[in-house]
TrEMBL record:
The keyword Iron applies. Keywords: Iron, Iron-sulfur, Metal-binding. SUPFAM superfamilies: 4Fe-4S ferredoxins (SSF54862). InterPro entries: 4Fe4S_Fe-S-bd, 4Fe4S_Fe_S_CS. This is 4Fe-4S binding protein. It comes from Geoalkalibacter halelectricus. It comes from the Bacteria. Residues 1-29, 34-54 form the 4Fe-4S ferredoxin-type domain. It holds the Pfam family Fer4_9.
Length: 54
């Protein structure tokens, strides 16, 4: 998959709600993008610290 969440993530959870296909999941205290991602870019714009990168 092309989109990833890097170490700048502050675990705010905003991206989870921004994803139209529910592709971002919480794993313990971190978040990750699953294979369901359609690369729509919605989460990139939603993340307050730009932790989601292509
Ligand atoms: S790029 Fe789109 S489909 Fe992929 S995780 Fe982000 S919001 Fe969801
Ligand atoms: S919106 Fe950004 S900072 Fe918040 S949980 Fe998602 S990747 Fe992390």
């Amino acid at each position: 998959m092309a989109f990833k969440i890097n170490q700048d993530c502050i675990a705010c959870g905003t991206c989870v709600d921004s994803c139209p296909v529910g592709a971002i999941v919480e794993k313990g205290e971190s978040f990750s993008i699953t294979a369901n991602c359609t690369e729509c870019s919605a989460c990139l714009d939603a993340c307050p610290v730009n932790a989601i990168v292509e």
